[in-house]
Amino acid sequence: MTFRKLCGALALCAPLMAQAEAPQPPTPLVMIDDFAVTNLHYAIFSSQSGAKANDSNPEKQIELLNELVNIFMVANSDAGRKMADHPEIAAAISVSNARLIAQALIRQQLENAEVAEADVQAAYKAKYADMPNQEFKAAHILLETEEEAKAVIDELAGGADFAELAKEKSIGPSSTVGGDLGWFSPSQMVAPFSEAVTRMENGTVSATPVKTQFGWHVIQRADARELPTPSLQDVRGELEKQLRTAKLSNFIRGLRDSARIEVISGEAEVVD
C-alpha cells in the first residue's frame, strides 16, 4: 500500500468507530505474517492514545500505525505468546476483556431499555407530588450555649446589627458572610431549623433560640418565595434516565441471582 493510500485508509477509521454498533468488515492496513492490522485496530488504538483517529497529519498517522504494528508484532511473537500464559498477565487480560465486554453490554442495556409512558408519569408523581413548594432566605448566628444565644437576641432587640453580630460571635462557617445562608428549601436544613424558619415572618428574628445538633441558632428570616414544580417535559429526560438505570440494576440483579457465586478464600467477602 502506498503512503497516500495508507493515509486515506487511516482517515476512514473515525467513521468506522462511530458506527461500531453496525457490523462492518474492517479494512486491513498492514499484514504481520498472517495477522491483519485493520483500520478498526488503528481507530481504537489512536483513541486510547488520546489522538484523533482522523488526524489529517500523515506523519502522525504513520507514527501511530508503526507503534501499533510494533505492539502487535511483539505481542504475537513466540516470546509474547509465552508471556500471555504468565499468571499475572493472563489475569490482567481476563480483567481487561471482562471490563470491556461489561461496559459495552451495560451501555447497550441503557440505550435499548424501553421506558413506558405510564412509568414516566408514575416516577414524576412520586418525585414531585410532595416537593416543597416554598423556599426561604435566611441568616443565622450559631452559638454553643442557650445562654449565649439569648444574650444575642437581647442585643438584637437593643438595635445591634445582625450581620455584625454573626461575624463577631457565630461559630458557624457562614459567620464570614454575616450568617447569610442564601435561599434554601426546608428539606435542605435539619428539622428544628426549617420548622422554625417556616413559622417565622419575613424580616423577623427568632424570639427564642433554636436548638439543633450543631448548637443554638438565632435566626433571621429575610424572605420567602414560591418554588414552582417543574413540568413533566422539563424533567422527562432525567426521569427516563433514572428508569433506565433502574432497569439496568434489575438486569444485573437477575444475573447475580441466577449465578452460582462461591467464596473460596477466607479473606474474600461477596456483598450483595
Mind explaining what this structure looks like?
The protein has helices at 3-10, 13-18, 39-48, 58-75, 78-83, 87-112, 117-128, 146-157, 162-169, 191-199, 232-258, and strands at 28-32, 35-38, 134-143, 180-184, 204-205, 210-212, 215-226. A hairpin with a 2-residue loop joins strand 1 and strand 2. It has 3 domains: 3-85, no CATH class; 88-131 and 231-272, no CATH class; 132-226, Chitinase A, domain 3. The strands form 2 sheets. Strands 3, 4, 5, 6 and 7 form a 5-stranded antiparallel beta sheet that branches. Residues 1-5 and 11-20 have low confidence and may be disordered. With 272 residues, the protein is of the alpha+beta class. It contains 11 helices and 7 strands. The radius of gyration is 32 Å and the shape is elongated. Helix 6 packs across helix 11 (232-258) and helix 7 crosses helix 11 (232-258).
